[in-house]
Amino acid sequence: MATKRNTRAKRRGNGEGSIYFEAASDRWRAALTMDDGRTVRLSARTREEVASKLQALQADLLTGRAALDRTQTVAGLLTYWLEEVLPARGSVHSTNTIDKHGHIVRKHLIPGLGKYRLADLKADHIERFYRSKAERYARSTLVEMRTTLSLALTYAERHEMVGRNVARIAELPAKTKPKAERRSLTHKEATALLQAVKDHRLEALVITAIMLGLRPGELLGLRWEDVDLDGGVLHVRQTLKVTNDPSKPKGERQTLALGPTKTKASRRSLGLPTPVVAALRHHKGRQSAERLAAGPEWANDLGLVFTTASGRPINPAGLRHYFERWGKAAGIGGDWKPYEMRHTAVSLLSDAGVPIEQIADLAGHTTTRMVETVYRHRVTPTVGAAVSPMQRLFAAG
Predict the structure, then answer these.
(1) DSSP secondary structure code for residue 305 in this structure
(2) Looking at the whole model, is its pTM more than 0.85?
(3) Could you identify which of 58, 148, 210, 343 might form a hypothetical disulfide with 104, taking C-beta atoms 3.0 to 4.6 angstroms apart as the criterion?
(4) How far is CA 165 from CA 53, 54, 68, in A?
């Protein structure tokens, strides 16, 4: 009499795992029972792939990283890091820095890498992501993406959520979109722009921007209490920032908020040229008239120097539109941006022979490097530094 064959497999202990083929999905599967009773399941197209994943997880068990959640996605990590970890480190990261990381996470990293399981993320995935961005963005933007991703993965690595930070070894593509050329107005163009805004309610803003080189946020966050027109001094103490709150409805996520300056060096006191004093005096009178005309419609008074006609803070996006229209009216092109007035101030001062150290102080930088490499541009149509010396050296006779 034939005996019934015992097909029951030997029970495996925790951490040993099993591999099997699932015909319904046409995939190889692996299952691993953890010490806490949880079963982690893996899958791949081939037996070799799923075996490799199982071995990696078993290695995690041996090295103390068994608590890895193999279902955690990159999107999950990035969201948690952005919403919980960064805000808790407010003393380390400024609001601007957190907002910048948030923009990169939401616009680029989650759409491009969020689908991957955190434990399965490889340098190859990241490098393909970089290549997909290379035609549209300059290298500097890709570097910012890499920095944000690496910071999040460093947190994951420190808390044993991943075995290593693969963003450190992923390489950026050699070829990317050329970086946009930084520009500044020439003296002639600046004069044309000032003529175009003459008698506009924000004429004083343009004059102050060109002659003092304030950042747009510093201009829009400037308060009357920080301006001493009699003494001819302006104190930069705060800045207007745009913040995004993803928890709010889509049309309400962006808000304007006053906050500290970009850096400690950005808190500075600047002497006012006579044209700036005159423009601000005139502007103050105009604003008083607007306040009276608005009556109860005047917004809560924050004491800002530059506001809308109803007293509200000016949205930086709105200011960019103003400069586009003013540039066209001045005949210098409609693609000039508020930040380029800062470049203009630095370049005009440099061209006028002001020492670079003094310009750095004016712009709110601790060193001259940024002024020399980023903000200073040639503003005269002809480089004439060699003309007089060469004429003297090679004079006829």
Answers:
(1) S
(2) no
(3) 148
(4) 18, 20, 14
